[in-house]
Amino acid sequence: MEQINATKRWYVVYTKPRNEKVVKERLSSKGFEIYCPLVTTVRQWSDRKKKVQLPMFPSYIFAHINEGEQALIRADQGVINFIYWLGKPAVVQDYEIEAIKKIDKEGSSIYVENKEIKPKQLVVIPNGPFKGLEGIVDNLDHNKVAVYIKQLGCLVHFKI
Q: Which residues of 30-67 are buried (b: 16+ CB within 10 A; e: fewer)?
């Protein structure tokens, strides 16, 4: 069993829209290590405002599994498939998951934008919630920074 755990990696799973939390719960109850970072946002209805928790990465969750478990994840009714990078299921490095968990824990003002961008400059973030994260940084203005995470194909925005 130890050898199986040694080969576990974080994969990006693409879910049906608005199914991230229920898929996480279903797969977690089956014994899989699933991570779905959430952000709190205020939603306005006609009669009230309410704080709700939404997935940081819409339609994406992360599964810490080995290659042999991929078919079991795909079998869930809310899963569409894995996200592919260079013809193989995308793998997110442990330090990238840790950076996301750190942001999740700190509750920074962030939002995620699915946007295809051209790589500009590869950097290692020196401090803050993304410390040690390698990515492509795009400075939006003096208060906000966006980090492009290539394995996810999206920009992660946060306030400085």
A: eebebbbbebeeeeeeeeeeeeeebbbbebbbbbbbee
Q: Which residues pair with 43 in a beta bridge?
A: 50
The DSSP output letter for 51 is: E
Label residue 24 left, alpha or beta by phi (over 0 means left) and psi (-120 to 50 means alpha).
alpha
DSSP at 146: E
Strands 88-89 and 84-85, by their bridges, are antiparallel
Q: What percent of the chain has pLDDT over 70?
A: 64
pTM: 0.67
Look at residue 20 in the predicted model and tell me its pLDDT. Answer: 97
149 vs 39, more confident: 39
| 14 contact partners, CB below 8 Å, separation of at least 6 | 59, 60, 79, 80, 81, 82, 83
